[in-house]
Amino acid sequence: MPSSPAPSSGALLWFREDLRLADNPALDSAVKSGRPVTAIYVLDEQTEGLRAMGGAARWWLAQSLRALASDCAAMGLPFSVRRGRSDHLVRDALRETGAEAVFWNRRYAAREIEIDAALKEELQGDRFSVQSSNCRLLHEPWEVKSKWGDPFKVFSPYWRAAQARGEPRAPIPRPSKGQIEPGRAIDGESLDSLGLEPTRPDWAGGLRDAWTPGEAGAKARLKAFVEDDLRGYASARDRPDLPSTSRMSPHLRFGEVSPHQLWHAVERAAAEGPATARDVEKFRTELGWREFSHHLLFQFPELASRNFQKRFDDFPWEKPKPSHLMAWRKGLTGFPIVDAGMRQLWRTGWMHNRVRMICASFLIKDLMIDWREGEAWFWDTLVDADPANNAASWQWVAGSGADAAPYFRVFNPSLQGVRFDPDGGYVRAFVPELENMPARYIHAPWEAPPESLSESGVELGKTYPLPIVDHGAARDRALKAFDRMKAESA
């Protein structure tokens, strides 16, 4: 590499987890630099230490990149996708375009930070201009600290401190076609050649039915949420049988929408329409949990692989019984709310948040299986699998994380079903074997009298499984294991 680049006024925009044109600070800075802009995305599966995306996330990425390519073409912005080591390919793109400047938005996992910092130092040493921006978070992880300058480990004080920083900035408007001066186009790979989508078998039919990835899909989903579902969100968000959540998480994961856009969209909805201040505040608190998860990942990079609380290193996890683990993955545990959640996950690549907690609690506490098994399965099957949220949430349920639910809080799956799916609509939607079960028994079909089972067409152990564990006995076993761990770490 020569000591200085060839003279040029070009700018390279490196897309990463920010697959949108509106409220994209890196794009905005590139355009405002007055340079002609060329954009790239690099699928980096070669750099050591990067965690490969799971299957569902890879499917989403393929759709999102197609949408982004179309949006860039409509704006006259040259865009290409390449596969390989990102640091090498960014340098190649700079050389091929003759660009003097590169713009990107920041990432927060430890290995990604290392890659970006090293590349930035090298490029600046070769007299390139490098500008990074924040587009993924309302508050970057190092910005919110206690009055003693320490990172927070409990959500409530963290979120109070974050909110005390003031209102998040307004979203940046999408540039118009005339504002972007096209840079030099460079070759890339076809999306089909990247192998992001399943073929044999093609298991993504349910995902295609459930989602519209891309910035336009995110915009439409947000519009539907604020107009139809934000009202009553505070009280209904725990009901999986109702359309009561935003379903924005995969769009956030891939940066098709920004948290700033969400923050101000719900604020406008409260000012203009039926949503209440309580609904808006509850939704913003969910954005706050996402922020806190990234705050934790930044201070504890091994969040997905190590216990945040070291005392859990001695927890007596049981060796998973293959039959139990497979029953959990396939939604065949005999506990209807758990089975509905796991089947929703497999069919759509997503699961209602309340049900995620129930399913996680069942794996960890009823089956005594290490939380990392569940985190890995969700990582592979969730379209919104995020290195911060996924790991922080699993550790929260396990009791091993920051601000964790106490380990002795063990969800009773039948009672959780009765409370949050009272008429059984959610179970019926994903466990058709129980479609005709009366609501009174749908969350505990083993308690139904023989005539109810017969009339419903249910034969336990044949058409629908019997429970794979006795919840009461499993709860006692989990609590005794927790007591042993406490005694040993005292």
From TrEMBL:
TM ranges: none
Entries under InterPro entries matching the protein: Crypto/Photolyase_FAD-like_sf, Crypto/Photolyase_N_sf, Cryptochr/Photolyase_FAD-bd, Cryptochrome/DNA_photolyase_1, DNA_photolyase_1_CS_C, DNA_photolyase_N, Rossmann-like_a/b/a_fold
Keyword Glycoprotein applies: no
UniProt keyword Secreted present: no
Keywords: Chromophore, FAD, Flavoprotein
Cross-referenced Gene3D superfamilies: 1.25.40.80, DNA Cyclobutane Dipyrimidine Photolyase, subunit A, domain 3, HUPs
Family stated for the protein in its record: Belongs to the DNA photolyase family.
Protein name (database record): Deoxyribodipyrimidine photo-lyase
